[in-house]
Design a protein that fits this description.
By secondary structure, the protein is of the alpha/beta class. It has helices spanning about 35-40, 55-60, 70-80, 115-125, 140-145, 160-170, and strands spanning about 20-25, 45-50, 65-70, 85, 100-105, 125-140, 180, 185-190. A hairpin with a 4-residue loop joins strand 7 and strand 8.
Length: about 190
């Protein structure tokens, strides 16, 4: 089952502003909190997804926040906190009235996506020509090397190594990408 983007005419007349789309885990311990102080130097509002626990902090820092969260439970939590939240999956049918974005951040999302190449290609379409992207995925090679088979979750549909993330980014049309490890090689980042 896939979520299909719906045309909403009432949103077509909204002012077009710069936004940064953040898609991924927004709970404590995911280093998202390090992004909040840095937002004072970014001339664009941040669009995030999740339950909104950091959306309120961003709002107090003067950010214009809008969520993208297909999960009903997380979206309902964010809506209860008075946030506007998009319920669409990002795929080839996805559209957003705020696009194109200056930056897209997707943290710990792509391993849950049924079609990672379609997902990345769709994110690329949401970016400005000179826009930046950050993709974070768990490092599968570290799990295998350390025999951490408990890292294999039923909701992880794909697993990535440095090579497979590089290939996915290139196949999706990204050029001049940098791939590196973080958090003691627990995660792989593509920028």
């Amino acid at each position: 089952i896939r979520s299909i983007a719906l045309y909403r005419p009432e949103l077509q007349n909204l002012p077009r502003e710069k936004f940064i789309l953040y898609q991924g885990a927004v709970n404590e311990g995911r280093s998202f909190e390090t992004l909040i102080p840095a937002m004072q130097w970014v001339n664009a509002p941040l669009i995030i997804c999740g339950d909104g626990n950091f959306m309120s902090i961003l709002k107090t820092k003067g950010c214009n926040v809008f969520g993208n969260e297909p999960s009903n439970s997380f979206r309902e939590l964010a809506i209860k906190n008075n946030f506007i939240v998009d319920d669409q999956f990002i795929n080839s049918d996805y559209s957003n009235i705020y696009a194109p974005f200056d930056a897209v951040i997707s943290r710990e999302v792509m391993e849950h996506v049924p079609e990672p190449i379609e997902f990345l290609s769709s994110l690329k379409k949401l970016l400005k020509t000179d826009g930046a992207i950050l993709i974070e995925v768990p490092n599968f090679e570290k799990s295998i090397t350390n025999q951490r088979y408990y890292d294999m979750f039923p909701d992880h549909l794909s697993y990535f190594t440095l090579e497979s993330l590089t290939a996915a980014m290139l196949i999706s049309g990204f050029k001049n990408i940098n791939i590196h490890f973080g958090m003691n090689e627990e995660f792989i980042y593509a920028t």
